Amino acid sequence: MRLADSPLARKLGAYVALSEAELEALNGLHRRRRRFEAGRDLVLQGQSHQSAYILAEGWVASYKLLPDGARQIVDFQIPGDFLGLRSILFHASDHNVEPVTRIEASEVLASDLLDAFQLAPKLAAAVLWAVSRDEAMVVEHLVSLGRRSAEERMAHFLLEMDARLQLVGLADRTGYDCPLSQYLLADALGLSAVHVNRVLRHLREQGLVTFQKGRVCFDDFDGLVALAGFDATYLDQERPLLR
Amino acid sequence: MRLADSPLARKLGAYVALSEAELEALNGLHRRRRRFEAGRDLVLQGQSHQSAYILAEGWVASYKLLPDGARQIVDFQIPGDFLGLRSILFHASDHNVEPVTRIEASEVLASDLLDAFQLAPKLAAAVLWAVSRDEAMVVEHLVSLGRRSAEERMAHFLLEMDARLQLVGLADRTGYDCPLSQYLLADALGLSAVHVNRVLRHLREQGLVTFQKGRVCFDDFDGLVALAGFDATYLDQERPLLR
DNA sequence: CGAAACGTTGACTTGTTTCAATAACTGTGG
DNA sequence: CCACAGTTATTGAAACAAGTCAACGTTTCG
After folding, report:
1. Closest CA to B141 of B153, B152, B133, B150
2. pTM of the full predicted structure?
3. Distance from CA of residue B120 to its chain's centroid?
4. How many domains does one find in chain B?
5. How close, in Å, is residue B96 to chain A by CA atoms?
6. Which residues in chain A are closer than 8 Å to B234, comparing Cβ atoms?
7. CB-based contact (8 Å) between B240 and chain A?
8. Structural domain boundaries, residue B224
9. Which one has a higher pLDDT value, A32 or B115?
10. A69 touching B, CB under 8 A?
11. What are the DSSP calls for chain B, one per residue?
12. A122 domain residue, yes or no
């Protein structure tokens, strides 16, 4: 694998072009590579001294549990994303991190990050950009839950994942492979699993998207964008590259 | 006013005790103090090269607008909070910032922050903590919209604002002054203004909280905490002080 | 091959929205 | 200081989106 082919390198490359030396420093973060099985949480709500990770392969869900047992998935992570970065600084982690599939991830200590930044200062700006982008995605998700209908939410979500996956080369405009069950979608979108099923059926019957057997397939991309009111500028990934 | 009395100093002081020199550096951020009238937005969605601010007095709402004109308030800011910090780094601001009351705020440039961090490195950690805390609040808000009922949402919101205001000395366990209209509450909680009114009435009739004439008054604090399932650990402000 | 997880559908219930009308504030100019 | 306009609060009735319960089909995997 060439250096630039790591998902994180691809993603950061959309923000700023990275030199060979900078890619090298980035690669240094991928020592301590680990594998985790689906369903075994990496990070637990309330626990302290947790590590952060860079996800290399597979899908992950970050979620919170409520006293009554309900759960809300805050975001999914895909290759190239950070996991639990906030819990490095915080007194205790305020959320859980669960692999949706079998995953591969590199453990990252605060000191690793600082070392990399010293080697390649441009990297610090790029990572800060990635973190701000994560926050912007959480904000957009909040807007979905507060002000979009179930159908708009689903459409918006499927489109956001497409844009994010495209950035790391795992999707194109026709669709992508998606390992999420309808239960996971329900917990992310603030719906019941039954309603998720109905919404997906309706979107399919309207000829907009088909999500079946682990594959999301856009039948009418522009129609879906219109329905969702999807505007990808919050992902900040359409800019002309800085060089 | 003694140095430690600025709201930001009070807030950061809950994370780490600050020396006189550090308070001095923090104070340096309060040059360029400005006043803004209620309703005249400071930062606009889609605009670039925006400033960040530290809020010194008054309340502010950060929100996003949807194509159909609906709006979702992401968070309110109170004295001691940063405004639009994310839009310093980002290509264009992805949200609007509107003063709810007449406010006073100090404009902060990226270079000001870096200067202050150089003068007082402990400040960098404290600011990073504040930013992470902001993100944790957005996440908890998202959980509210996704998985809590209207009544739980309202209760949770009123309790969160109490905890935050206490940290800067603007509230106690009995209540606080709150300039938010029911329309603003509705746009924050993902409800209609009519339903906000009904929810407030019901909470009042249950003897839990009274929110009338600009004042939130807790009639049964513990009962409200129980109803909301409120657990303030995500605010990370209960820790024993680091010295 | 069987069990468990996941997906699908229908009938019914509920929380929240919408529409509509009226009352109570708030601030401003005469 | 009062009258008026605009905003904010309050309440009822009807409509609707999404949830719940329940049953059954389908896939996956050990």
Report:
1. B153
2. 0.94
3. 25
4. 1
5. 12
6. 94
7. no
8. 147-235
9. A32
10. no
11. --GGGSHHHHHHHTTB---HHHHHHHHHTT-SEEEE-TT--SB-TT--SPPEEEEEES-EEEEEE-TTS-EEEEEEE-TT-EESTHHHHSSS--SEEEESS-EEEEEE-HHHHHHHHHH-HHHHHHHHHHHHHHHHHHHHHHHHHHH--HHHHHHHHHHHHHHHHHHTTS-BTTEEE----HHHHHHHHTS-HHHHHHHHHHHHHTTSEEEETTEEEESSHHHHHHHHT--GGGG---SPPB-
12. no
- A55 located within any domain: no
Q: For residue B127, what pLDDT is reported?
A: 86
Domain annotation covers residue B210: yes
- Residue found under tokens 């359409």: A238
Tracing tokens 């079946």 back to the chain, one arrives at: A212
Q: Which of residues 124-163 of B touch A (CB under 8 A)?
A: 125, 128-129, 132, 135-136, 138-143, 145-148
- pLDDT one-digit tens code per residue, B30-43: 999 999 999 999 98
Question: Whose C1' is closest to the CA of B189: which nucleotide?
Answer: C16
Q: Which two tokens stand for residue B96?
A: 């609007």
